[in-house]
Amino acid sequence: MINKQELEKIKEKALAEHIPIIMDETLEVIEKYLKKSKPKTMLEIGTAVGYSAICFIDFLAEGGRIDTIERDEQRVREARENIEKVGAANMINIYEGDAVEILPTLNSKYDVCFIDAAKGKYPFFLQQALRLLNDNGIIFADNILYKGYVMSDYNKHKQRTAVRNLREYIKEASENDMLETEILDVGDGLAISRKK
Ligand SMILES: C[S@@+](CC[C@H](N)C(=O)[O-])C[C@H]1O[C@@H](n2cnc3c(N)ncnc32)[C@H](O)[C@@H]1O
User: Fold this and answer.
1) Which of 26, 83, 136, 153 has a 20 to 30 A CA-CA distance from 54?
2) Which atom of ligand 1 is the closest one to the Cα of 121?
3) In a mutational test of the pocket of ligand 1, which residue from 47, 49, 54 has the highest number of ligand atoms less than 8 Å from its CB?
4) Which residues line ligand 1 (CB under 6 A)?
5) Atom of ligand 1 at shortest range from CA of 51
6) What's the pLDDT score for residue 15?
7) How high is the pLDDT of residue 81?
8) Domain-by-domain residue ranges, the chain?
9) Which residues, 6 or more positions from 144, have their beta carbon under 8 angstroms from its beta carbon?
10) Distance 70 CA to ligand 1 centre (A)
11) What is the distance, to the nearest Å, from the Cα of residue 187 to the centroid of all Cα atoms in its chain?
């Protein structure tokens, strides 16, 4: 069992430093699913300081493990410290580098994929998650509604590429015959795709 006090400290520090971590209500939805399905292997794209990965650990099957990818060197360092602090070093493995380069080199299969990194790369992450996902597995994609921009006619330059790619993710996940996808309006929007 992860030490809840340590976990709370990690969360508070991340929030104080404006490091984007999973929102409580999004976490609740994912944890509910994990509790039921007890996955053995999980892939996370976007570790930040390890908060969500540490939260998920308690819900995995015995001997379960999480592989998580992060490109920011300082966050990787802090995530490793946090993971060590809560005694989860043998359950969480961090791949340091750009997920766009790392994902194509992976060949392990996962029961659950959690996409929570650069929004402009979501369609690519979906393609890779599908390749690495076990049958009956599930893909969660956080921030899929991006502050409501994705479902509005919002077209500001800075966010345009992200919005276009998030819309493309929704279209691909919804139209893919291998997947059953729903979009939940929790937190910043969560896409849930089950592999048939
Ligand atoms: C929203 S945060 C992850 C939060 C974390 N999942 C949590 O809830 O505790 C997104 C992270 O993804 C990382 N990231 C963004 N694009 C990436 C990429 N292409 N490859 C690896 N990491 C990436 C960022 O550096 C950032 O730390």
Assistant:
1) 136
2) 19
3) 47
4) 20-22, 46, 48, 51-52, 69-72, 75, 98-100, 116-118, 121
5) 9
6) 97
7) 97
8) 4-195
9) 122, 150, 166, 169, 170, 183, 188, 189, 190, 191
10) 6
11) 13
- Closest atom of ligand 1 relative to the 69 alpha carbon: 21
Q: How far is CA 163 from the centre of its chain?
A: 18
In the prediction, which pLDDT does 152 show? 83
What is the pLDDT, as a whole number, of residue 8?
A: 96
Q: Give 113 Cα–ligand 1 centroid separation in angstroms.
A: 14
* 0.85 surpassed by pTM: yes
The pLDDT of residue 167: 95
Distance between CA 33 and CA 111 in Å, rounded?
A: 12
Tokens 């500001």 correspond to 156
> Which CATH class, in words, describes the domain spanning 4-195?
alpha beta
Residues of the chain with pLDDT under 50: none
